[in-house]
Amino acid sequence: MNRPPSxxxxxxxxxxxxxxxxxxxxxALGRPATVLEAGEPDRLRPGSRxxxxxxxxxxxxxxxxxxxxxxxxxxxxxxxxxxxxxxxxQVFARTYPxxxxxxxxxxxxxxxxxxxRHLLRACKAAGxxxxxxxxxxxxxxxxxxxxxxxxxxxRWSADYVIAADGSRSPVRxxxxxxxxxxxxxxxxxxxxxxxxxADPLPAERVFHYAHPAAGSRNVLFxxxxxxxxxxxxxxxxxxxxxxxxxxxxxxxxxxxxPSGYADRIAWASTYQFxxxxxxxxxxxxxxxxxxxxxxxxxxxxxxxxxNSGVPDADAxxxxxxxxxxxxxxxxxxxxxxxxxxxxxxxxxxxxxxxxTALAHLRPDAAGRARLAExxxxxxxxxxxxxxxxxxxYGPRELPxxxxxxxx
Length: 407
Hints:
The chain is of the alpha/beta class. It contains 11 helices and 19 strands. It has helices at 17-28, 55-64, 66-75, 112-126, 170-174, 240-243, 246-256, 306-325, 329-361, 365-377, 382-390; strands spanning 7-13, 34-36, 52-54, 81-86, 89-95, 107-109, 129-131, 136-142, 145-150, 155-163, 179-183, 188-194, 204-211, 217-224, 227-233, 265-271, 274-278, 288-290, 296-297. Strands 1, 2, 7, 8, 9, 10 and 18 form a 7-stranded mixed beta sheet that branches. A 7-stranded mixed beta sheet has the order 5-4-13-14-15-12-16. It has a 3-stranded antiparallel beta sheet with strand order 11-17-19, with helices on one face. Helix 1 crosses helix 2 (55-64) and helix 3 runs antiparallel to helix 4 (112-126). The model is unreliable at 403-407 (pLDDT under 50).
């Protein structure tokens, strides 16, 4: 293809946390990085979204930008106690020691907008080039590279493109890569609630099976720096709109938190979670690499979204670096093939792990009986309490090609 003046060796599409992670990894490898972003530099996106940054993700950041991981850890919250209750009765509790001085914590919890703010500052310090208001509307790849066209008609070309442009990924659609999977049947209400200095709550993660004050619905409370994430699992037949806004939302929130918190709602939404993975994490010419939500969507249990997207980005940057470093087309193609195979295997693992958690949270009659029996016996068998506490987050085994997530 003919190269327009705006040619770059590699272009990253999307300036979310995954796209900026890819750009940082490229810079750490000595490569220039250009990011095309549809939004404005001061864009505001609602909701806390991905609040967990696991240590495996912090370690990726530490390799790419040494100060970044410790900044995120310092600005985030590390809760040390987790509790699980069944029908109002505690069945499990554990308190962990604080992180040792000078070490990275197992996780840090802060709003995604804050994670993005730190990433943007690190990218600018590393010399990443940002092009804002540059929504990609067309992408075309061939054996020589990729051509991108923005909504304003501006043309860009690159030897390689790392697509981090989200779940609707115009780049993925343009090059003909499909997503496959399913959507969960049940609805969830997700609420951000700001801290109430007049009535502070202990910084503990608390999960309720069948919360008696919430109509026996499951409720999860997770603190993050500055507030709380509250997840309500709806019953079949519930009206999501009624329970996610106005008096309906405030009514159940007052029932499960001190009353003042119902007046501190920052954001609320409803979800049916997708469980999908791209058929391939690269285009057929092996010039476009898909990362984060452009490659996969999971239910949030276990915080597998951002924490798999960042390893995707790091692996994509490494593959592009290898491909650009060789004059042998077969070697370049093999680097992208290896990225696609390895990260898709990890994505399938995380999809299935999140699916296991979904099945646990929406059990059939036999599953409900098993939960009730485990709760009854948990006072005398800590293994059952531990199972009740961990099962809502899915298996904790090592995803292929990834560091184990601890939460």
